[in-house]
């Protein structure tokens, strides 16, 4: 452990932690002292998914953090129903749930198969609902908790005149479900505020290149480093609900507005303050929030 101990004594379940944003959040939370239960579909390497839970756990332990791997296929109703109790029982409780897992599948509406639409809802709305519902009693028993949902800047309405990305289409169904998870976040935050359980959402201000997203990001597009989103995630999972709940936060805007020092994933180094590029969505205000 090499951070400031902001999450010392906390237990965090991070879904989709074998790679990309989920792995980065798991590393940063462990650096701040959390015991991380890292989950994804497979413990080891699969043919269609780079990265493994074993690699994530090894990276965390290499820097003195504590982590365990727990495989679960969240498309399987039985496995997703059991994930939270299995994680809490294995780790000794649950304080933080990060709903990160999902596989984006872009397609114009006129050509989108119904099974792709259904999978999009499954990954990005049903799974967070099921896991959040299961986590609430565990968090309530510990007197507080944090639920963090991964959002997307695509949830914001397209600006007019429409740009080439919007004309090309493909993100409409995905974006609509991400807009739904934002509203879910705000509503659940209100329901759980009296229990001391914070519910927030974090999304890139622009785009982050990961193994899951790179096929949709044009070559040469200037993506942002994942560390800014991860620092925002940490800020949303380390402050009591009475101070910070119902936030729909964005990765570059939020650290600037709140004066956050952005650190490397191992907690040992510092990154420069973020710079919000001119192409960021104009609906994002200077607080880094959209609503909240």
Automatic annotation (TrEMBL):
EC number: 1.-.-.-
Coiled-coil segments on the chain, per record: none
Family: Belongs to the short-chain dehydrogenases/reductases (SDR) family.
MF GO annotations: oxidoreductase activity
Pfam family, one: adh_short
Protein name: Oxidoreductase UcpA
Stretches assigned to the Ketoreductase domain: 10-205
UniProt entry keywords in alphabetical sequence: Oxidoreductase
Organism: Cupriavidus yeoncheonensis
């Amino acid at each position: 452990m090499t951070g400031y101990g902001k999450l010392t004594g906390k237990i965090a379940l991070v879904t989709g932690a074998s790679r990309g944003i989920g792995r980065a959040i798991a590393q940063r939370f462990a650096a701040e002292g959390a015991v991380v239960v890292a989950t994804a579909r497979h413990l080891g390497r699969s043919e269609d998914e780079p990265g493994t839970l074993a690699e994530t756990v090894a990276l965390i332990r290499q820097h003195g953090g504590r982590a365990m791997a727990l495989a679960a296929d969240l498309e399987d109703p039985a496995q997703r129903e059991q994930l939270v109790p299995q994680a809490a029982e294995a780790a000794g409780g649950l304080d933080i749930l990060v709903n990160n897992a999902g596989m984006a599948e872009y397609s114009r509406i006129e050509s989108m198969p119904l099974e792709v639409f259904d999978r999009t809802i499954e990954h990005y709305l049903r799974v967070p609902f099921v896991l959040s519902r299961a986590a609430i009693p565990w968090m309530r028993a510990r007197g507080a908790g944090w639920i963090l949902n991964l959002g997307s800047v695509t949830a914001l309405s397209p600006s007019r005149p429409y740009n080439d990305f919007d004309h090309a289409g493909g993100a409409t169904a995905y974006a609509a479900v991400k807009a739904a998870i934002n509203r879910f976040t705000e509503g659940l935050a209100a329901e759980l505020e009296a229990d001391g359980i914070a519910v927030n959402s974090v999304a890139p201000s622009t785009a982050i290149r990961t193994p899951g997203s790179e096929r949709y990001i044009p070559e040469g597009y200037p993506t942002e480093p994942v560390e800014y989103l991860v620092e925002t995630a940490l800020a949303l999972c380390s402050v009591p609900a009475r101070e910070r709940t119902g936030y729909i936060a964005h990765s570059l805007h939020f650290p600037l507005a709140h004066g956050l020092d952005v650190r490397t994933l191992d907690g040992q180094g510092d990154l420069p303050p973020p710079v919000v590029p001119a192409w960021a969505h104009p609906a994002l205000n200077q607080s880094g929030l959209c609503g909240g």
